[in-house]
Amino acid sequence: MSGEPGSIRIENIVKRFGTFEAVKGISLEVKPGETFGLLGPNGAGKSTLIRMMTTLIPITSGKAWIDGHDVDAEPDAVRRCMGVIPRPSPATSTSPSRRTSPSTPSSTACPGPSAGAASTSCWRRWT
Fold first, then answer.
1. Beta carbons within 8 Å of 31's beta carbon, 6+ residues apart
2. CATH class name, domain 8-126
3. Whole-angstrom Cα distance, residue 66 to residue 59?
4. Model confidence over 14-59: pLDDT tens digits?
5. Main-chain phi, psi angles of 44, to 5 degrees
6. CA 55/CA 81 separation, integer angstroms
7. Secondary structure class of 121 (helix, strand, coil)
């Protein structure tokens, strides 16, 4: 089953790096108008999941849809519906002006206006 417009749907998504399984069969659905957050300890796979959902890294197995678009089959359509604002990792920052708080995520997925004018129709479905 695919996701509906304005939704996020993930079915049994897995990410492996060699023999290491970083994301182990996560499933979730966020309907239009809902807000969600990913919470967990360091190394739990939160950033890896976001990177798969935003097409930055490939999905090993499982399926994901953003705004009704299949992340694997329609990566360009997925990218038009959101933007990703990367933040430097505190471990890799050398300049004080580039440091981030330990509680700050390493990237932020922003559906909507931050992705540019092409995302306007998708943004309306998310609000």
1. 4, 6, 7
2. alpha beta
3. 14
4. 999 999 999 999 999 999 989 888 899 999 999 999 999 999 999 9
5. -80, -15
6. 12
7. helix
